[in-house]
Amino acid sequence: MPLLTVKTEGGIAVVTLDNPPVNALSHGVRQGLWDMVERLDADPEVRAVVLTCAGRTFIAGADVREFGKPPEPPHLPDLVARIEAAEKPWVAAIHGSALGGGFEIALGCRFRVALEGASVGLPEVNLGIIPGASGTVRTPRLAGVEAAVQLVASGKPVTAAKGLEMGLLDAVLSGDLTAEATVFACTALKTPLPAAVSARPVAPMSDAFWAEARKVAAKPGHQAPLRALDCLRAASERPFEEAMAQERATFLELRGSEEAAALRHVFFAERAAPRPAALAGVEPRPVAKAGVIGGGTMGAGIAAACRAAGLPVVLIERDGEAVARGLANIDRVFAGAVKRGKLTEAGRAEKMAGVTGTTDYAQLADCDLVIEAVFEEIGVKRAVFAQLAAHCRPDAVLATNTSYLDPRAIAEELPHPERFIGLHFFSPAHIMKLLEIVPTSDTAPEVLATAFALAKRLGKMPVRAGICEGFIGNRILRRYRAEAEALVASGVAIAEIDAAMRGFGLKMGPFEAQDLGGLDIAFLQREGARAAGQEVPETLGDILVRASRKGQKTGGGWYDYVEGDRKPRVSPQVAELLAGRIAAAREMAREEIAEQLVGAMAAEGQAILDEGIADGPAEIDLVEIHGYGFPRWKGGPMHHAARAAALRAA
Ligand code: NAD
Q1: C-alpha 262 to ligand 1 mean position (Å)
Q2: Which CATH number characterizes residue 500's domain?
Q3: Mean pLDDT value across the chain
Q4: pLDDT tens per residue, range 139-181
């Protein structure tokens, strides 16, 4: 199949690009489009050109196979300019999505029309770069600075309807896109053509506007959004050619940056994660109905996630009262979605109508998958699995959401152990993307494949984890917290450590995060281990919990809190309680603090790899990014530590 075909009728040439799977702008596509402009300009029969794409989408962006490599001519900015300079006006006819370079091609066209349901966007900042082919320069000329800032600095695509409202599109069409776009082109030829986008005027904005835009876009250590704003500002204040030169220079500089390398690493890791090589050719079992045991924090979130993905759910609780509480917990999730405008009241009712709350395990008889999320106690969990064994089909997948128990101990007496697996969701389970999938040595490959298929259906990021205490994520978390405590013990101020990690890009540092979540859960675990005869040294956190400082909920943990205010305040009582365990106060640069803590995470990650608990360093990075708020523009602890080591060696 040729990449480009053309069919001319009634003076309108319809050019169809067919470069599966997403019509990416490979070198061949760029050259083909360039040649097509020349050819159609020379064709006296042609009066206008409609550019459409075959398959599921318009040009969805650059060719990922060319990422990080020097591109060959024709370069994209030149191609966009060439399309714009064509004698015959081009109409971009967009379905699916026009992203990045795809939207920039559309910017070179004289008109942009899109099918209902399509989306357009400039997501380059998500890869640590900026649009490199006039996205920052033509977009403000097309739709004004505010719309351009919204599109470019957030990297978030907008729907066709929104794009029309913002002035990014000339029309939203329905029905047969090619036919409708052809009609659009014929009509457009009847009136004088609008100016090429590059020739349109743009109104500059005030200093206050730019200050606010920077505030909204700023994320510690993430430079691409701010550099994009610099280019947008230049585009609104300087001549077209100068702004283009600044955009190009910025694009080239960022393309070679650490940030872009980190984001490319995450991009490829995310693409690979849902399809582990070990499962090639293994068919998942069909899942049409799910059961959830326990309607507390996790069970309710898991049930809501299953419902949101369209699965009917049976929720089992201990007694009638707990059933009612569980259902209310699930409903609260959907009520929140209504409040945020993501769901209608009718949608909420429909979601809840698909949940059956009961104490009767017999209701699970036709469930294809059951996820247990009851108290973290081995006896309680074993009793639940005995009930599941009695009432579920032998081919139904049975999963536990345990955080720290050994899944093998939970399933010890389960008949058909090949159907059993750990599915470790993160709180809140309807929001957090990470799903650690924990097979035992008995788990059948198709059960593992079913878990990966479920993750995809629920919109989760699946990572296989082997069995060890805390699996991948919580094990690294423990090491990270221990390292942070070690820094405190060595005299570094608690608030300095938190500030260092915020400066690194996390939303919260280790101590403020513990205050929010509560110090008691980890404490009880350590106490449990001590009671079982394990040697677990007394941590600084233990001292605080013993003094009833369990975090925000008790008015204090690592910090003090004033009622009704979540702002952490340095605590004289903590200083007193820990006095005997802390060395004289010392200064440490924040970058150094962050490097030490991330280094500890990576060291634990390496131990996890050496033990075969994770499949590769990229999977560990995904766990930290999707489960623990590690900044994706740092690539994850494994990527970050490897780059830091390489830079030190260079
Ligand atoms: P939770 O206390 O909020 O909820 C537990 C629910 O289980 C309660 O509603 C309780 O009534 C119900 N329950 C207890 N025994 C039952 C039984 N025999 N039959 C039916 N229902 C029963 O606890 P949670 O935070 O939702 O944790 C549940 C599980 O998820 C635990 O294994 C925990 O380790 C794990 N987990 C928790 C988190 C988290 O952040 N909270 C994260 C990941 C995993």
Answers
A1: 36
A2: 1.10.1040.50
A3: 96
A4: 999 999 999 999 999 999 999 999 999 999 999 999 999 999 9
Between the CA of 26 and the centroid of ligand 1 the distance, in Å, is 50
Task: Using the atom order of ligand 1, give the atom closest to the CA of residue 427.
Answer: 40
Of the given ranges (45-49, 385-389, 392-396, 643-647), which has the lowest mean pLDDT? Answer: 643-647
- Strand 397-400 vs strand 369-372: parallel, antiparallel, or unpaired? parallel
Question: What is the interface pTM, i.e. ipTM, of the complex?
Answer: 0.99
Q: How far apart are the first and last CA of the chain?
A: 46
Same domain, 282 and 244: no
User: What distance in Å separates the CA atoms of residue 438 and residue 463, rounded to the nearest whole number?
Assistant: 9
Nearest CA to ligand 1 atom 40: 427
**Same structural domain, 80 and 145:** yes
Count other Cβ atoms within 10 Å, centred on residue 607.
14
Domain of residue 370, CATH code: 3.40.50.720
Structural domain containing residue 550: 473-612
| Centre of ligand 1 from the C-alpha of residue 520, in Å | 16
Residue 355 sits at φ, ψ, to 5 deg, of: -110, 125
Tell which of 256, 290, 321 closes a domain.
256
**Assigned domain for 393 exists:** yes
Percent of the chain with pLDDT over 70: 100
Ligand 1 binding residues, C-beta < 6 A: 293-299, 316-318, 322, 326, 373-376, 380, 384, 401-403, 425-427
CB atoms under 10 Å from CB of 117, counted, come to: 13
Protein residue closest via CA to atom 12 of ligand 1: 294
Distance CA 156, CA 233 (A): 19
Q: In the structure, what pLDDT confidence band is assigned to residue 69 with cuts at 50, 70 and 90?
A: confident
Task: Give residue 68's pLDDT.
Answer: 67
Q: Whose CA is nearest to atom 4 of ligand 1?
A: 296
pLDDT tens-digit map of 76-124: 999 999 999 999 999 999 999 999 999 999 999 999 999 999 999 999 9
Q: Whose CA is nearest to atom 30 of ligand 1?
A: 373
Among 403, 405, 626, residue to substitute to test ligand 1 (most atoms within 8 Å of Cβ): 403
pLDDT at 63: 84
Residue 57 structure tokens:
């989408």
Q: Is residue 157 part of a domain?
A: yes
Mean pLDDT along residues 389-412: 97
Alpha-carbon span 192 to 168, nearest angstrom: 20
Rounded Cα distance, 246 and 132, in Å: 10
Q: Would you state the structure tokens that stand for residue 363, as one six-digit string?
A: 């209701």
Residues 477 and 458 in one domain: no
Distance CA 378, CA 374 (A): 10
For ligand 1, pick from 317, 375, 469, 626 the residue to mutate: most ligand atoms within 8 Å of CB: 375
Q: Which atom of ligand 1 lies at the shortest distance from residue 403's CA?
A: 34
The number of the ligand 1 atom at minimal distance from the alpha carbon of 322 is 11
The residue from 434, 464, 494 where one domain ends is 464
Do residues 384 and 354 both lie within one domain? Answer: yes
Domain annotation covers residue 397: yes
Domain total for the chain?
3
Q: Give dist(CA 230, CA 213) in Å, integer.
A: 11
Whether 647 is in a domain gets the answer no
Ligand 1 centroid, distance to 479 Cα (angstroms):
24
Ligand 1 nearest atom to the CA of residue 374, by list position: 7
pLDDT in tens, 340-378: 999 999 999 999 999 999 999 999 999 999 999 999 999
